[in-house]
Design brief:
A six-stranded parallel beta sheet has the order 3-2-1-4-5-6, sandwiched between helices. The protein is elongated and about 60 Å long. Helix content is 53%, strand content 11%. The chain has two domains: 4-15 and 105-240, HAD superfamily/HAD-like (Rossmann fold, 3-Layer(aba) Sandwich); 16-101, Orthogonal Bundle (DNA polymerase, domain 1), CATH 1.10.150. Helix 9 (186-195) links the parallel strand 4 (179-183) and strand 5 (199-203). It has ten helices and six strands.
């Protein structure tokens, strides 16, 4: 029996990648120095810099605004530009404005949460800042269907540490054997859930190679019926083994 379904937020329920891509395209088009960097390389560089600085923000090593400035300072440096304070600040602000304007849920996410909430409790487990994640959940219309929002900044533990999953399970009054975790990041979501004794489902929207064929894989959150079948089949199959 399944009592709770846990989700990652960014790029599982909330389409961070879409918003980042739109915002980054605006940066690229606004500065000729980036023209000579292939689009995929530019996107990859930005993602790598963002991830590195994001970890430092969550650890409290750098302030959020400083991290945003440093991100674009490094991007300009990758294009051979020693950007001054004004250019970096203006670029970061423009990116942020376009990012916020491009928010949207992952296709199928809202309908899936609504359907699941009639059958199980719903939790979100996210490595990020609490206010930002609360705003995303509210913007996407997820709030009525989320019973617990567990964010690393607020609880002081980050995925893949099993402790953050334990917090979510406690808030949902569920044990690990009757929970499922769905996320797009193998190391933090899949491996983290496994370490906590929770059955993982990998959301692989990019068609990447699955590191472990025994883990259930989804390529999208719609159409809904196959997704619901996959979620509940994980528990059924595991319990009968």
């Amino acid at each position: 029996m399944i009592d709770a379904v846990l989700f990652d937020l960014d790029d599982t329920l909330f389409d961070h990648r879409h918003a980042a891509r739109v915002a980054l395209d605006g940066v690229r088009r606004g500065h000729a120095c980036f023209d000579r960097i292939p689009e995929r390389d530019f996107e990859r560089q930005h993602a790598e810099i963002l991830e590195e600085l994001h970890i430092r923000v969550l650890a409290g090593d750098v302030a959020l605004d400083d991290a945003r400035m440093e991100r674009f300072r490094r991007l300009f440096a990758s294009a051979g530009v020693d950007a001054g304070e004004t250019l970096v600040r203006t670029t970061a602000a423009g990116y942020r404005e376009r990012y916020l304007a491009s928010w949207q849920p992952v296709p199928g996410a809202l309908a899936l949460l609504e359907a699941l909430h009639r059958r199980a409790r719903i939790g979100i487990v996210s490595n990020n800042l609490l206010q930002e994640q609360e705003e995303k959940v509210r913007f996407c219309g997820f709030t009525p269907f989320v019973d617990a929002l567990v964010v690393s900044e607020a609880v002081g533990i980050s995925k893949p540490d099993p402790g953050i999953f334990a917090v979510a399970l406690e808030r949902l009054a569920c044990d690990a054997a009757h929970a499922v975790m769905i996320g797009d990041a193998w190391r933090t979501d899949v491996a983290g859930a496994r370490a906590a004794g929770i059955r993982p489902i990998w959301l692989n929207r990019d068609g990447d190679r699955r590191p472990d064929a025994s883990v259930t894989e989804l390529v999208a959150l719609e159409p809904m019926e196959p997704v619901l079948s996959a979620i509940f089949a994980v528990v059924t199959t595991t319990q009968s083994a």
